[in-house]
Amino acid sequence: xxxxxLWGGSTSAFQFEGGGHEGGKGPSIYDRREEKTGVxxxxxxxxxxxxxxxxxxxxxxxxxxxxxxxxxSRLFPTGEGAVNPEGVAFYRDxxxxxxxxxxxxxxxxxxxxxxxxxVEKYDGFGGKGTLRxxxxxxxxxxxxxxxxxKYWLTMxxxxxxxxxxxxxxxxxxxxxxxxxxxxxxxxxxxxVMAHFLAVKACHEMIPDAKIGCMMASALAYPLSxxxxxxxxxxxxxxxxxxxxxxxxxxxxxxxxxEKAMREAGVTLxxxxxxxxxxxxxxxxxxxxxxxxxxxxxxxxxxxxxNADAQTIQMMYAAYENPCLQKxxxxxTIDPMGLRIFMNELYDRYRLPVMVVENGLGVKDDVLxxxxxxxxxxxIAYLREHIRAVNATRAEDGVPVLGYLPWGCIDLYSAGxxxxxxxxxxxVDFDHGCKRYRKDSFYWYKKVIASGGRxxx
Length: 456
Ligand code: BG6
Prior knowledge:
Layout lengths: L5 E5 L2 H4 L12 H9 L9 H15 L3 E5 L2 H4 L9 H16 L3 E7 L5 H7 L5 H17 L6 E5 L24 H26 L4 E7 L3 E3 L4 H24 L4 H10 L7 H8 L7 E5 L4 E3 L36 H15 L3 E5 L18 H19 L5 E4 L21 E4 L5 E4 L1 H11 L7
Parallel strand pairs: 1-2, 1-10, 2-3, 3-4, 4-5, 5-7, 6-8, 7-9, 9-10
Antiparallel strand pairs: 11-12
Helix pairs in contact: 3-5, 7-8, 12-13
The chain binds 6-O-phosphono-beta-D-glucopyranose.
């Protein structure tokens, strides 16, 4: 029987694609960031000029899927209005090339690169104009790439939206602003509506396709068996993981979210039309995709600004897990957490799951004289996480659609650091983005050829 499990890798346009000033692309918020910081997002890994070579490398590893995002401002230079035919042609070429190599594109509609014009005009997802533009953009994607793309993802890591409401805007709000909570919930609600509108349009326009959300897993354990710590971990998991998924799965804000809005004096700007979209069964996703890098520990008490707290991620003041090792970036290495998380997801929502980000980002990759990178540390990390995926599928019976580790060909980190590398392929950013196969490239090829069984 043909193996349908998707093996591959994952990227996003602003971190990987480049070609920022070509093909009629309009600026996104990352072009503004480039002006301010000098990080050359407009070049990134230059997939724009290397895509044939990159797809050949993916095919050599045996990929059956590749996750990428569409740069909204390549299709619509100002985010709305007339479509840019060169943008459509570029993505059509890429998808056709992938299909020709037996690789399914898994396409994220929104991976953070908000068109700059929409920030200036509507304050990003702070305004309803952006929502209208997003629906037009999605409908264009579904019409133009019908038959080429079977798997769509909506909003990258949308569950972090409430924690970082100014993420897609250039106007940072302070928590001291009197309208902060209203702004925070309005923008969040608009991103949730963006998800529903995309799912509904996809189901109506291309019923054969599958569309899912994309969330950042933020699995928390209690720091001790003290029930108060257990409750602290539960509260974190509810707030960061389950509240949003409850909303996407049902079309309703749950009681915790309702209470949070009530207490903050927030009234959502929804009308009958939006409520109808939320309630429509056609707006329900087909699967849940997620990123998984680490787990955290929580304990009772005020975690935020606690002098003892070891902050692993800027938004969670979490504690170190004494049972786990950390990467050089301080992220815990917890393959069992991946299995735990997928079980939780499936038990709660009964939807297939897809791992669309995982991996070890390190500064240790060194290109040797023979054009190789000896990245045994990456192999060791991935081996254990793939074991966890195998166990989740075989022993726990969870339907896992695929495993697409992050940054399969080196790319820029989310914060613009090009020395933090994840890939099976090394990109020499200083010399024309030349590509080199790392040791993990040959290892992953063997893993895929054996259907994940040969992990040595
Ligand atoms: C996820 C994002 O949060 O984590 C990616 O979807 C990001 O865009 C990835 O690159 C890894 O984080 P970082 O900071 O190592 O790039």
